[in-house]
Amino acid sequence: MVFKTFIIAAILQVVTGRTRIGPLVNTDAGLIKGLQADDGDYSMFLGIPFGKVDEANPFSAATPYPKFDNTFEAFNDTTVCPQVQEPQGTVAGTPDCLVLNVYVPFSASSSNRLPVLVWIFGGGLMYGDDKPVTPEDQVIINQMTTMWANFVKLGTPVPQTSDLLQIQWTPINNQSQRPYLNIDLQLSLGSRPFHQRATFWDLFYRANDHFLKANNPAEI
């Protein structure tokens, strides 16, 4: 889908309880109306459909989404593809999830052509969505990037505690304990991650060690 014309529409709208100026673009698929971002000089076009899923056979090839008869309001970024939500193990989402989010500099126009950002979320085709980063997510992102930077520069992820990194990450000095860091809004230390799973496989290999040696003598 090519954004051909960028029109700054002087139209006041009330979206999610807030007054916004709605940007409007003319595309090959028709007119698409977006939102002006609150945190920068750019516009957001959320949930633009690019393909249509056959509900009777969702694993078949998708077809191009038909052109819009009316102006498409690209306000919705809540679409989630089918996936298992952990740790509950419940299934959420809809197969009709072939949508894109496009972010455009607010100064872009047909005479001032600028790059745009098209967001395609990751997840290895197993999980993930295009929802914006929450303040809680940002805290964990900051924790991860700070610890990586500390490890590269200083050889330890937490050289000293702070409001962001509240506890020291203890190095492994006893294989039976295997301390690990649980990264969440509040950092916490634990020992022996997935203890029950690991114990099962330890017992399994001990009980079947003679079979393994008999079938793989070269690896003994």
Automatic annotation (TrEMBL):
<keyword id="KW-0719">Serine esterase</keyword>
<feature type="signal peptide">
    <location>
        <begin position="1"/>
        <end position="17"/>
    </location>
</feature>
<comment type="similarity">
    <text>Belongs to the type-B carboxylesterase/lipase family.</text>
</comment>
<dbReference type="InterPro" id="IPR029058">
    <property type="entry name" value="AB_hydrolase_fold"/>
</dbReference>
<keyword id="KW-0732">Signal</keyword>
<keyword id="KW-0325">Glycoprotein</keyword>
<feature type="domain" description="Carboxylesterase type B">
    <location>
        <begin position="23"/>
        <end position="132"/>
    </location>
</feature>
<protein>
    <recommendedName>
        <fullName>Carboxylesterase type B domain-containing protein</fullName>
    </recommendedName>
</protein>
<dbReference type="GO" id="GO:0052689">
    <property type="term" value="F:carboxylic ester hydrolase activity"/>
</dbReference>
<dbReference type="InterPro" id="IPR002018">
    <property type="entry name" value="CarbesteraseB"/>
</dbReference>
<feature type="domain" description="Carboxylesterase type B">
    <location>
        <begin position="133"/>
        <end position="201"/>
    </location>
</feature>
<dbReference type="Pfam" id="PF00135">
    <property type="entry name" value="COesterase"/>
</dbReference>
<keyword id="KW-0378">Hydrolase</keyword>
